[in-house]
Amino acid sequence: MAAPAAEATAATALRSVILRARNAAERVGRDPERVRVVAVSKTKPVSLIRQIYDAGHRCFGENYVQEFIDKAPQLPEDIEWHFVGHLQSNKAKTLLAGVPNLAMVHGVDGEKVANHLDRAVSSLGRHPLKVLVQVNTSGEASKSGVEPSSVVKLARHVNMHCPNLVFSGLMTIGMPDYTSTPENFRTLTNCRAEVCKELGVSEDQFELSMGMSGDFEQAIEMGSTNVRVGSTIFGPRDYPKKST
């Protein structure tokens, strides 16, 4: 169970993040309602997520399949769940079966996982699933995602060969060195322009998922429609940092 003090702090932090997101959108003349704050709750207890839910928030994200399918059934069905990050192909059906109210997957990084998700949606008989293609905008070998030069090919595959998926846009993680994120974000917006030109659709119809706790305001100013905010709302993660 999360301590009451932690819950109160998280609810206050959520309100601050939402206000900052609205202000960032308004600074560049964007509609704040077009920006979605995904509260990333990985490693956090159900009681703390419920506190944020009770504060009025409905959009949450998780990163690990097993943790996700353990927690989701314990929470209200009207939550809009997002899976964020790399998804192993062989866990696609497990994820969809365990989280019927999964709204979007941020992190389709290859045709194989797209095909598995498409088949899983079909076999479970659920409504089409929104997906974002993950782009490796930083060139870091440790990051999942397709190279910018391969984005159009994967987007075309999802759009044409995965009838149970709704190709909804692109996502990137960027780099921990925040001085370089404008370049990463710009790369993603350029990729969106290329994909929309190839598919013959308006850029307004496609989403960008970029920006996290340290850079979400800048990401919104550069066009993000989904910011994934975790530690700023919930506090530090409850796992040791990986050695560098």
TrEMBL record:
Record keyword Transferase present: no
Gene3D superfamilies: Alanine racemase
Cofactors named for this entry: pyridoxal 5'-phosphate
Described purpose of this protein according to its UniProt entry: Pyridoxal 5'-phosphate (PLP)-binding protein, which may be involved in intracellular homeostatic regulation of pyridoxal 5'-phosphate (PLP), the active form of vitamin B6.
Lineage top rank: taxon: Eukaryota
Annotated source species: Eruca vesicaria subsp. sativa (Garden rocket)
Family, per entry: Belongs to the pyridoxal phosphate-binding protein YggS/PROSC family.
Keywords from the UniProt entry: Pyridoxal phosphate
Residues modified to N6-(pyridoxal phosphate)lysine: 42
Pfam families: Ala_racemase_N (PF01168)
GO molecular function terms listed in the Swiss-Prot or TrEMBL record: pyridoxal phosphate binding
Sequence ranges assigned to domain Alanine racemase N-terminal in this UniProt record: 31-237
The protein, known as: Pyridoxal phosphate homeostasis protein
Key word Protein biosynthesis present: no
